[in-house]
């Protein structure tokens, strides 16, 4: 258990071919390690993917990668979550509805981590930015998109967690606090939506080769870790109908 949420494992956490055909999926933090892997997995399963991130050039590069793979044409939505206002999230939902006509899923893969540091050295603006990206943005984006998601018969939202046994230790600062609070948000959302068309899921990846991992574990040979591909495939899997039995649970990808 993490908070009130049960941990779950599945034998093959990857979407079946065409499992997301005709669906529209929004991936926040699309150009990060987990985000990019989730985008490619969702597109590979047939989804039209809306790429949300702050760096336009990186979004364009990922757009070209998805398009070259022959999947549905993706869309780009540049947004800096650290500086976004509540109205900005409403505009995301309005734009997706206007341009795509529907929204079937969200993957929250964006993360803000400035590095390990003592609590008394965290600058106030860095604390606020970390809470904004890791906790407030997932809440506000989900809240803004819920009316659109509820128009579908089967929709899902996936939140990416981090290992609570690690991030509760010294020097994890605002990132650790935000990631500890996230299961509470997910639990509340699940209990409020558990009889409706929108499923809420958590995803707990195993250690993987990402920029965030390199920042936190600077003495580690990050290249020895697996790429985020398995975690991205698991995020896509959670959006499919096959994951309906994991509603309100955390898919645990860590080694048993």
Automatic annotation (TrEMBL):
The keyword Phosphoprotein does not apply. It comes from the Bacteria. GO terms for molecular function: oxidoreductase activity. SUPFAM superfamilies: NAD(P)-binding Rossmann-fold domains. Belongs to the short-chain dehydrogenases/reductases (SDR) family. InterPro entries: NAD(P)-bd_dom_sf, SDR_fam. Keywords: Oxidoreductase. This is Short-chain dehydrogenase/reductase SDR.
């Amino acid at each position: 258990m993490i908070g009130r949420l049960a941990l779950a494992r599945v034998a093959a956490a990857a979407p079946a071919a065409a499992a997301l055909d005709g669906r529209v999926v929004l991936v926040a933090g699309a150009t990060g390690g987990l985000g990019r892997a989730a985008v490619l997995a969702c597109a590979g399963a047939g989804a039209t993917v809306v790429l949300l991130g702050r760096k336009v050039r990186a979004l364009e590069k990922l757009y070209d990668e998805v398009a070259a793979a022959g999947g549905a044409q993706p869309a780009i939505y540049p947004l800096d979550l650290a500086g976004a206002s509540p109205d900005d999230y409403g505009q995301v939902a309005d734009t997706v509805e206007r341009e795509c006509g529907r929204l079937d899923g969200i993957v929250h893969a964006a993360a803000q981590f400035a590095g390990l540091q003592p609590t008394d050295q965290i600058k106030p603006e860095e604390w606020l930015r970390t809470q904004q990206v890791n906790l407030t943005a997932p809440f506000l984006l989900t809240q803004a998109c819920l009316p659109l998601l509820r128009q579908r018969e089967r929709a899902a939202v996936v939140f990416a967690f981090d290992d609570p046994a690690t991030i509760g230790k010294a020097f994890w600062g605002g990132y650790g606090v935000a990631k500890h609070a996230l299961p509470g948000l997910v639990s509340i959302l699940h209990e409020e939506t558990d009889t409706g068309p929108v499923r809420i899921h958590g995803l707990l990846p195993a250690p993987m080769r990402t920029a965030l991992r390199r920042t936190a574990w600077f003495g580690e040979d990050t290249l020895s870790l697996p790429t985020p591909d398995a975690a991205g495939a698991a995020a896509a899997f959670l959006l499919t109908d096959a994951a309906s039995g994991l509603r309100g649970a955390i898919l645990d990808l860590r080694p048993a």
